[in-house]
Amino acid sequence: MKLISNAFDIGKEIKRDIDAFRGRLETASMDAIKQSVSGLKLSLRMMTVAAGLGQMLANTWRDSTRGGKRLVFPQRGKSAEPSGVIFSRAPEIISSFDKGAIIRAGGKGIYLALPTQDTPKGPRGKPYTPSQWPVQRYGELEFVPSHKGGFLVANLVRSYDKVSGAQKGVRKATKRRKNAGREVEQIIMFYLVPQAKIGKRFDVQQEASKWLANMRSIFDASMSKKN
Asked: What's the pTM value of the predicted model, to 2 decimals?
């Protein structure tokens, strides 16, 4: 009977050890997925900003619902094989810059208006669009056709820094500026094209692969802390 009792006690001890190890395994796995999901989200946001696409688009990368619930599964309890979700609220825009895309204006006689380096910037620091063009400040835009589309030009004078001589921008060709001898130029403000190609700006899969590879080290560090 004692032999049976000892074997039973050993069995219970082994079960406790297995249960304890499973608990550590599940905790470490959940730690790894949570940290990786959070880290990847931040990396994707930084990548988007670094590509020059702005903080607003960067903030579309999410790892939670509108209610703030983290998209790590299981959402209750623990698992040795958890999963996580990261997504963008602007998937079509993100996909265009991730893979590259061709944007078409949509029909005959309709064009995309691409600003030039001379196009003045609006209050938010972005170039004006034709629909936003401040006529009273810069004068009317004129359409100049070409065989592929055309141009929108404005009759302006260039403004230069008095010390460095570098161009500061453009100004309306007012009567006062003309009388002062300022040269009036017909400056291209927008290129009108039937389509435009968006080049690849970043690689979402490459960034995800980095965090997938890093997940093992996060797991190992978490397992060590549970010893």
From this structure: 0.69
**How far apart (Å, rounded) are the C-alpha atoms in residues 159 and 167?**
6
Tokens 């395994």 belong to residue: 25
Tell me the C-alpha distance between 139 and 136, whole Å.
6
What's the token pair of residue 58? 């960067």
**Residue 36: which of 219, 226, 202, 204 has the closest Cα?**
219
- What tokens were used for 34? 């949570």
Per the DSSP assignment, residues forming a β-bridge with 121 are: 127
User: pLDDT digit string (tens) for 85-123?
Assistant: 999 999 999 999 999 999 888 777 789 999 999 999 988
Percent of the chain exceeding pLDDT 70 equals 92
96-131 in b/e form (b: 16+ CB < 10 A) is bbbeebeeebeeeeebbbebeebbbeeeeeebbeee
Strands, DSSP E only, in the chain?
61-62, 72-73, 83-84, 87-88, 101-104, 112-115, 142-145, 150-160, 167-172, 185-193, 195-198
